[in-house]
Design a protein that fits this description.
Elements (H helix, E strand, L loop, with lengths): L10 H11 L4 H16 L3 E5 L13 H15 L3 E6 L3 H10 L3 E3 L15 E7 L3 H15 L3 E5 L26 H9 L4 E5 L40 E4 L3 H15 L9 H13 L13 E2 L2 E2 H18 L18
Parallel strand pairs: 1-2, 1-5, 2-4, 3-4, 5-6, 6-7
Antiparallel strand pairs: 8-9
Length: 336
């Protein structure tokens, strides 16, 4: 997770700051939190995502990871996911979920998620951008849907002044609904909150708010007087930091696959590539090219295919899916 795939130069300091506050393997720790919460509470998981670029168009980083986590949760734990996005991003999110091999179903009017046979479901719940409408929708999500756990991935996080920004200081006023209040309310109800981010301005990154300004100048001052910095104020209960948030999602999926000892949980590389392609087909843009290119943070889908191939291969070998020198299944060198 700490390899600087994009060359932006932040990940080394971000990861060190996280290890100072939250030592250990963040993806595996998150996987254990998810498994425990779902098995104890039995409710669905709510994942919030969506980061606006120019004109409010959503980027590919976040939605792809959210869809693939939802797939892993259903195949590994038999639990449904509700993906929470702004109301103008519904088409993009539905298309992305289809790319991940999921069947998006209408969100129930009563908010109750019920098991459905012979389909691999996911639910996309939209919220309006106005504060009153957004809070009403998210309050109902907590009271009616009763999630086991809430997760944010590459979702803007408000700073200490309640304002949202891009990493470079760009104001996001009017482009994004306030979901910080939803996650804080979930925490008040003792619902675990996991976040995935890659820059410091994402929801949940308040875990490293104190350290962030020491190596990321815009964290404290976005460059516009009176607005404060881009650093997110809300702290998740558990944080995953990666060079690209979708890569953090892949790490979480890999950890779930290992923890559950279930290779099916980890998607094939071709599925990730298709997911990226359908995300841009239905309205997403790459966060570096700022155009509907099949890429995430400037890394083309073909490169992601290779990265996922390598990580998935490691997971499969760890699970014993290899052939040793005698032709038996498993690696004789493994420490049991």
């Amino acid at each position: 997770m700490a390899i600087d795939l994009t060359g932006v130069g932040l990940i080394t300091n971000l990861y060190a700051a996280l290890q100072d506050k939250q030592p250990g393997p963040s993806c595996m720790q998150a996987a254990q939190i998810i498994v425990d919460a779902v098995r104890q509470r039995k409710g669905p998981v709510v994942i919030a995502t969506g980061f606006p670029e120019g004109a409010g168009v959503p980027e590919t980083d976040g939605p792809v990871g959210a869809a693939l986590i939802a797939r892993a949760l259903f195949l590994g734990l038999g639990i449904e996911t509700v993906i929470l996005v702004d109301n103008d991003w519904e088409e993009m999110m539905v298309g992305t979920c289809r790319g991940a091999g999921l069947a998006p179903l209408p969100f129930p009017e009563d908010g109750q998620i019920r098991s459905i046979e012979f389909v691999r479901p996911v639910y996309v719940r939209t919220v309006p951008k106005d504060a009153v409408g957004c809070k009403a929708a998210t309050d109902a999500l907590l009271s009616e849907t009763r999630p086991s756990l809430v997760l944010s991935i590459e979702r803007p996080g408000a700073n200490a002044n309640g304002l949202y920004h891009g990493l470079g200081g760009r104001p996001l006023d009017g482009m994004v609904a306030d979901l910080d209040q939803f996650f804080r309310n979930a925490q008040e109800q003792d619902i675990p909150f996991i976040a995935i981010g890659d820059g410091g301005n994402e929801l949940g990154m308040g875990v490293i708010a104190e350290a962030l300004p020491t190596f990321s100048p815009k964290a404290k001052d976005c460059g516009i007087p009176g607005r404060g910095g881009v650093g997110a104020a809300t702290a998740a209960d558990h944080l995953i930091i990666a060079n690209v948030s979708n890569w953090g999602a892949t790490g979480l999926v890999a950890a779930l696959s290992c923890l559950l000892e279930n290779p099916v949980v980890f998607h094939e590389p071709s599925l990730e590539k298709r997911c990226i392609e359908l995300c841009v087909t239905f309205g997403g843009v790459d966060g570096m090219f700022m155009a509907p290119e099949p890429a995430v943070d400037g890394i083309h889908a073909d490169e992601w295919f290779g990265l996922v191939t390598a990580l998935r291969g490691s997971v499969m070998r760890a699970l014993g899916h290899s052939t040793n020198w005698k032709g038996d299944s498993g690696d004789w060198r493994q420490i049991k």
